[in-house]
Design goal:
about 50% helix; single chain; about 0% strand
Length: about 350
């Protein structure tokens, strides 16, 4: 279901609408080129190596759950390739959900940004990984960022499939709210989508972090679930990332009578082929998803500057980023914040 937008309120003169799609697509194109450069530099470097999980034993729930996560990721990637392949073989334009999927895929490069200023978020090193491209991101500060393992299979599938699917859940909630309360305006409908995203994010994070130990939030500030444990989750996580997903849900919900999202407006008036039109649409949504997600990752990175001390972390979650065996103390209120070019801050607290 899409919500037609009245011409009087949302339409603009043709020139300005065309400028809008070009601006959105130009921003998206620059971001795609930047991340391609980062990936290539990382792959060609000596930092493109798996992170050592270390000697600590893996809990039984992780031994069972992590392979299941990876297998499901492979299946979803196969399904996504088949879905896009079918569209291309039929020479059909990309559907709105396919545009959203590709836009979110080109947001994957932001995944390590939470750790830009100091290590605050980690993954389980037993997952298939080659470290991360962190230290090739312009402006990166935190040492050993490349040691935080990006789970290639799971996260690639998450960005192209699971996150857009989550946005569809928010779209569904907004649709139900509109049917139940026809007089509701955009703000209330957005909040309905946000509530759905908060509930979904809580379920997913608790499963991944607390049960399967897929990831962790060691440098967290303020109130948390399971405070002081290596699987603690800061409560603000359940608001900030759902806000990003709710924004994408609203983008998908408030389409015009041609099924176009706000950032796509004017594309139908361009005298270009269908595939060029699809490319512009994807780049425009890429820009939107990147800008929304950047607000989340930079907020999380800022809060890491005010984090409580790291809890005791197992080796496969500490990822040799800090603590014993390194030249850096794990983050805490009393710990200076090192940079890539500063002197080491040797670990002395014994916390890790």
């Amino acid at each position: 279901m899409s919500i037609p937008l009245t011409r009087e309120r949302f339409d603009a003169p043709a020139g300005s609408r065309l400028e809008a799609i070009h601006w959105w697509a130009a921003i998206g194109g620059l971001l795609v080129l930047l991340q391609a450069w980062i990936y290539i530099a990382w792959i060609r470097s000596d930092k493109f190596v798996p992170t050592d999980p270390g000697p600590d034993p893996l809990p039984r729930a992780s031994e069972i759950g992590l392979p299941i996560f990876q297998a499901l990721s492979v299946l979803t990637l196969v399904a996504a390739v088949a879905y896009f392949g079918r569209t291309l073989l039929r020479r059909e334009p990309l559907a709105p959900i396919q545009v959203l999927m590709l836009g979110w895929l080109f947001t994957f490069w932001q995944d390590p940004w939470l750790n830009m200023f100091r290590p605050t978020f980690t993954y389980n090193a037993h997952l298939l990984n080659f470290g991360s491209w962190s230290e090739f991101i312009p402006g990166w500060v935190s040492p050993h960022g490349s040691r935080i393992p990006e789970p290639i299979l799971i996260n690639f599938a998450a960005y192209v499939f699971q996150l857009p699917l989550s946005c569809l859940f928010g779209w569904w909630a907004m649709r139900k709210a509109k049917a139940r309360f026809p007089a509701w305006g955009g703000v209330r409908l957005f909040l309905a989508g946000l509530v759905a995203m908060v509930a979904l994010d809580m379920a997913q994070e608790i499963l991944a972090t607390r049960v399967v130990h897929y990831d962790a939030f060691p440098a967290a500030a303020g109130p948390k679930l399971w405070d002081g444990e290596f699987y603690q989750i800061p409560l603000y996580e359940f608001l900030f990332f759902p806000l990003v997903l709710a924004a994408s849900s609203a983008l998908f919900f408030f389409r015009d009578d041609r099924g176009r999202m706000v950032v796509e407006r004017g594309v139908d008036r361009l005298r270009v082929g269908d595939r060029t039109r699809d490319l512009l649409r994807v780049l425009a949504v890429t820009a939107f998803a990147n800008l929304m997600n950047a607000g989340y990752v930079f907020t999380m990175a800022f809060l890491s500057l005010h984090a409580d001390p790291w809890p005791q972390m197992p080796s496969w979650m500490r990822d040799n980023v800090c603590g014993a065996g390194t030249v850096y103390e794990c983050p805490g209120p009393e710990v200076p914040i090192p940079t890539l070019t500063s002197r080491p801050v040797p670990p002395t607290s014994g916390r890790n």
